[in-house]
Design a protein that fits this description.
Blueprint (H helix, E strand, L loop, with lengths): L1 E6 L22 H17 L4 E5 L2 H14 L3 E4 L11 H17 L6 E6 L1 H11 L18 E6 L5 E8 L5
Parallel strand pairs: 1-4, 2-3, 2-4
Antiparallel strand pairs: 1-5, 5-6
Helix pairs in contact: 1-2, 3-4
């Protein structure tokens, strides 16, 4: 199974203070809407998913809804795909990502390719979970630009494949 991890488009949250952790629920900017439309065209042409999972936060849910309407596939929203929450420890955040990735895999077993629309921190934790990093390793960051696409694959061989990380060629 292939998993597209997609970060939402530019949102008003991007312009908050530097130590902002992503817990507010602000909409996409007009530039963010344009980024999402470009990303959707690329995903439709190059690697359309059969199912989409998304964070419930507005910037991600709007991105996922637009992708769903473009691809013509269903989307399900999960609170567990939200960014790290206030008062949530790094350990609990990592555990949440591991659990939601397991849940998504179990509930997507009939699909060859799915998409997960989420946030930078959660995408990092999902990649760490995919790679089975021990939870003690918490000093790694997988950069995700606005509408950045990562393509991971569980193969039939005894290994996992990272096809690419943070691709934004649709924005050029």
């Amino acid at each position: 199974m292939q998993i597209l991890l997609i970060r939402h488009g530019e949102s008003e949250d991007d312009f908050l203070e530097e130590n902002y952790e992503g817990t507010t629920d602000l909409p996409l900017t007009s530039k963010g809407v344009e980024q999402v439309e470009k990303m959707c065209r690329r995903v439709l042409e190059e690697f359309p998913p059969e199912f989409i999972w998304s964070s419930t936060l507005l910037r991600a849910s709007k991105t996922a809804e637009t992708l769903s309407n473009t691809i013509k596939c269903p989307v399900t929203f999960l609170d567990e795909l939200r960014e790290m929450q206030d008062l949530e420890s790094k350990f609990d955040f990592t555990l949440r990502a591991q659990n939601v990735l397991s849940y998504i895999r179990e509930n997507s077993a009939n699909y060859k390719r799915i998409a997960v629309v989420s946030h930078g921190g959660m995408i990092t934790k999902l990649i760490e979970s995919f790679l089975q990093f021990p939870h003690e390793i918490n000093d790694v960051w997988f950069n995700s630009n606005n509408t950045g696409i990562h393509l991971l694959e569980y193969t039939e061989h005894p290994y996992k494949l990272i096809r690419f990380l943070n691709s934004t060629t649709h924005l050029n």
